[in-house]
Design brief:
single chain, 251 residues, alpha+beta, 2 domains, five-stranded mixed sheet, four-stranded antiparallel sheet, 6 helices, 26% strand
Length: 251
């Protein structure tokens, strides 16, 4: 019973330390304090099959959680369809996706504490082990394991405690501070999924076949409907017209 209780406590501590943040400023501040890297997951959490598989097969497993609690600050940048999200968060997430050139979901970047990308990976089958090995290969010698500092010997007489000054959190200096990209044309930025479950990222909107979304072009907003989604191109209609427009991935 004691052993089971100890294991339960250890797992609870591990899960708490591997919690996913949603704000890059907070992630950077924590990474700087703890000398860790940031793992940022760009995801469509409630609609993308590969994002769901990544969570179920890799990110929720004890092997990954143990590795993450030791070396990483976890950051989720989500693009859901059902989960409510404020316009401010949507705008911020779109800016981050533009900055890191995200072409589909899921995309996982490894960042240093200043927000610089060291490399990225996509979902790959096989469970936590190959995923963790890929993160290690991206991070190289930047992974810093925890060290336990030895307490100095206590003096014979304890001096009166003086409140320690709390160090000021470093100024936010790593995440991109840029205006959102203004599109003048429809751009196909990525295609995720496979078979009949493909999704296209057009400007900053994700659209499935038969689905519509409002996409901003300059000062105007147009209604874009996905008609067909292929491996490297999509066919759409705009504002309910019968005209079919093909968008292709840039090489």
């Amino acid at each position: 019973m004691k052993l089971l209780l100890t294991l339960a406590i250890a797992l609870a501590i591990q899960a708490a330390s591997a919690a996913w943040l949603t704000d890059i400023k907070a992630a950077q501040a924590q990474a700087q304090r703890e000398s860790k890297l940031i793992l940022v997951k760009f995801t469509g959490s409630d609609w993308s099959p590969e994002c769901i598989r990544l969570n179920n097969d890799v990110l929720s497993k004890p092997e990954f959680m143990s590795f993450a609690s030791e070396y990483l600050v976890l950051l989720e940048i989500d693009f859901p369809r059902q989960k409510p999200m404020s316009p401010e968060v949507k705008r911020s997430n779109g800016q981050l996706a533009d900055h890191y050139k995200v072409g589909g979901y899921p995309t996982v970047h490894v960042l240093d504490a200043d927000g610089n990308s060291l490399g990225h990976t996509l979902y790959q089958p096989g469970g936590p082990k190959p995923f963790v090995e890929k993160i290690k290969s991206i991070a190289g010698n930047r992974l810093q394991p925890k060290t336990v500092a030895q307490a100095p010997p206590e003096p014979a007489e304890q001096p009166a405690e003086v409140p320690a000054e709390v160090p000021e959190v470093p100024a936010f200096n790593g995440a991109p501070t840029f205006a959102p990209k203004v599109y003048s044309n429809l751009e196909l930025k990525g295609i995720s999924g496979s078979g009949n479950a493909r999704f296209a990222l057009i400007n900053n909107q994700t659209i499935g076949a038969g689905e519509s979304a409002k996409v901003k072009l300059g000062d105007a907003v147009v209604n874009v409907k996905g008609l067909e989604i292929h491996n490297d191109s999509v066919v759409v209609s705009v504002d309910g017209t019968k005209e079919r427009r093909e968008l292709r991935l840039r090489q």
